Structures are given as structure tokens and as C-alpha cells.
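Each record in this resource describes a single protein on a pair of labelled lines. An example record follows, reproduced without changes.
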Amino acid sequence: MKACVFNLGCKVNEVECASFMTALENEGYETTDTLCAADVYIVNTCAVTAEAEKKSRQAIARVRKCAPNARIVVCGCAAQKNAAAFAGKEGVVAVAGAMRKDLVPQLLRAGGVRQEEESVFCELPPPKQTKTRAFLRVQDGCNNFCSYCIIPYLRGRARSRKAASVVREAGSLSAREIVLTGIDLSSYQDGEADLGDLLLRLSHLPARIRLGSLEERVITAPFLEKMRAAGNVAPHFHLSLQSGSDAVLRAMNRHYTREEYLRACALIYRYFPDAAITTDIIVGFPGETEEDFCDSLSIVRAAGFARVHAFPYSRREGTNAARLADLPASLKKERMARMLAACAEAEKTYAERFLGRTLTALFEEDGGYTQNYIRVQAAGAKEGGMYEVRLTKYENGGCMSEIVKQI
């Protein structure tokens, strides 16, 4: 029997899918995460944007085209938001939500609609390792309730995995790099232990540790001191921003100001002068003026971002922002073009600082990433290999490099 586990969502979803594959293999299934003909399917959906939710619904038709007689279980955020949109589709035998995903493989047998809440972190089987870089899920849920985001209503309140469980699974991984993931990683807490303490407990590992998305509030001197003391944490901070305008940040229910965010960046550079700070910026949030937008443009340079994921605001029913008047699509498109140009220039400026220098890069199938998240290509580099590389030229959003030695 063959099982296909298909993911449409974030890195947390991706880790969950790898755990589903382990659970199914333990029951004798041959598994794949590539959409192809199979006997059963688990489809892990996403609802972060309207487009993601639409693709989640369309995925069922894609599965049916691959295998008209297959049994399908749908889970994830889109299924949590609107179970009825999936329950009636042909071939779908069960619909679960975004919580208690330990029960999802069982639903292939039990069927039905099952959307259970969870008050503590839900442990899943160790994910099947399919990549050089492993993702380790340590947190779930969110208490932030940003005005544009539906996820806290679907994933539930913040909850963290026990540090001992994290350390145990991390020690079993053979990956050269481990990425700690969570819906709100900054809220990680196991008793008195916070995210910095967890990093210290992982400091004995030979693997490089990389952090998922962080919030401004976690960037403190004690946290950065612990991170530096650990010694094996990549100096890469994906520090969520969303807007450079104080007015828009307030409307978004983000709990910091532009000045506080820039202070956090300055503190990072004090501890890690070569750090890559990457971020997300929403363009065209309701009520965003030209002045607000220019504040977002200017912070791209002021923060010294290494990379920016910029995207236009997408209205989500059920959020506070959905009650606000949306900006014209043409205006958002025009601002996006200006933002993307600023982001491309920032990425080039950051990468060119390192031309002629030697950095450590882990290579996958389509190239490598240095410890500070610069994309590199190098002739002779093999997938799964860790190399010291000298950066020689910036082009096409990354750097050409030459191998100095393999590590």
C-alpha cells in the first residue's frame, strides 16, 4: 500500500507531514511527499491567505486526478477554518483540523470529521528525514492575534514542547543543520526555560542550529548572550516586521514600534556583526498611506536586511482587519513593485559585503546557504556537503563561490 502525504503550508506543516510519513511507515505503508498515484492521501492544508485556502481546496481535485479511488484525509488550517468545504468532496473519508494531528493517520481507518482542541503541545512521531536540513517542531499556536492573521483562531493558544523531548529528537537526527520551527517560536517556554535556554541545551550537537521566525520581543541581551554561548547557532535572524510605519503597526496589533524594532536590529549586530536579518513586509495594509509605505521602504535600508519577503495584503474573513476598507489592487501592485526593487537592492548590498571572504555553506540539491543565509553556488559541491567557500561574485540573488575545503 502506498501513501502520499501532501503539504500546502508552512514549515510547521512540513514537519508534521514528515511525522505522518513515519506513522504510516510504522503501519507498513510505502510513503512519498510527491503528489503521485497512491492508495491513500493525507493533505495538510493552509489558510494563511485566501490564495492558500483556494489551493488547499483545489488540491483534492489534483489528488483525485492521480488516484480516483483513493481514500483521502484532509487536515490543517484550511480544514479547521471550513471543514464543510472538504467533507463533501468525493474520496474524502475524514477531515481533521489544525490540532491533535497525532490522530490524523488513524482517521484513514476511522473516518468522519474530527476537530479536537489541545491545551498542551501535541507530540508527533519523529519526522521522516528526507533532506540535508531537518526541521524540528518545538512550539505550536499563537497568542499574538495580529489583526490581519487568522492562524491563532485555527492553531489555538501558544504551547511548547518539553525541552527534554526536543533534545532527545535533535540528538537522533543525522542532518548537518537543524531548523527550530514553531508558529510563534519566540514564545517557547518549558517551565523556567526559554528559547535561549533551549539553545544552550542543544549546544553539544555537531549540527548547525538555525532559528525559524522570531518576534522583536525575544531580542534581548540575555537571549543573545545564550545564543552566542551555544556556539553552534547560525547568525541568522528572521525577525518579523510587517510594516515600518508606527501607525500601521498599531492597526496590525503588532506590539512594538519602528524605533524598538531598529533597536533590536542594532542589538543583534552588536553581538553578531555579520548577522543576516531577514523579514516579512506586508504592502498595502488597509489605511496605509503613501507616508506609511515610505516608512516601510526606508526601514529596509535602515535595518540592513539581508532578505525581505514582501507580499501584498490579503483580506482574511474572521480577522479584525477584514472589517477595514481594502486598498485598490492597482495601488498595492504599484507599491509592491517599488518594494521589491528596494528589497533586491538590500539583498545585493548585504551579500556584496562578503565578497572575497570565506564562509561555511551547507549544500542541497539546488545550491547552498552560508551560516548567515547567503545563497551560494560552487562547482563541485555535492548535495549534503558542508564546505568552506570563498564568495567571488554576486548575481541573480546569490553569490558564486569557490570551494576552499570540505568540512
In short: The chain has three domains: 2-114, 133-352, 358-406. The chain has 13 helices and 22 strands.
